[in-house]
Amino acid sequence: MAFELALQLQHQGYALPKAFIASGSRAPHLPSIKPNIAHLPQVEFVSELTKLNGTSNDILQHEELMALLLPMLRADFSIAESYLASQTPIACPIHVFSGRDDDITHDQLTAWQALTTEGAELNYLEGDHFFIDQYPEALLENVQRILIPLLLENQ
Predict the structure, then answer these.
(1) Average of pLDDT values for 35-44?
(2) Domain hosting residue 130, numbered range
(3) Structural domain total, the chain
(4) Best label site of 13, 40, 62, 96, fewest CB within 10 Å?
(5) Do residues 32 and 81 make contact, with C-beta atoms less than 8 angstroms apart?
């Protein structure tokens, strides 16, 4: 969604951000190679969510809460599974983060390079797809490394 927003801003002549940060995601112009799960019956869908290990079991087992969350989760997965961006590059650098143990391939990550005219940087951090939760300090250090020089150049 963030890449689509950047494309629309660029197309309409608005200034783009000084940096674009993608985390744990394939380049959006590549089709997903993972099996689609958004359409699965509830029991199977929740089973797949459990395998992803990104949602607390307390939440997954709470029937009332899941009744509220399932439509949003299905919509999120549906978008992620079906969205394909155009291969129009944006005019700002792209910084891509991924967990070393994530199942997103190196090719899916380096493909972000095709979507920028300003260079792309790939950063692997320890952890799996949810490295943000597992090693937040490492991610914050890297984001600061990117953003602080941009903030200082505007002073």
Answers:
(1) 95
(2) 2-31+88-153
(3) 2
(4) 13
(5) yes
Please report whether residue 51 resides in a domain: yes
Measured CA to CA, the distance from residue 105 to residue 24 in angstroms comes to 10
Find all residues with CB under 8 Å of 112, minimum gap 6, and list them: 22, 27, 94, 96, 120, 122
Verify that 16 and 52 share a domain, yes or no. Answer: no
Q: In terms of residues, how long is the chain?
A: 155
Residue 116, domain member (yes or no): yes
The answer to whether residues 3 and 85 touch, using CB atoms and an 8 Å cutoff, is: yes
What single string gives the DSSP state of each residue in 51-88? HHT-S-HHHHT-HHHHHHHHHHHHHHHHHHHH----SP
pTM: 0.88
The DSSP symbol for 93 reads -
Please list the residues that pair with 23 across neighbouring strands: 97
Q: What is the amino acid identity at position 142?
A: N
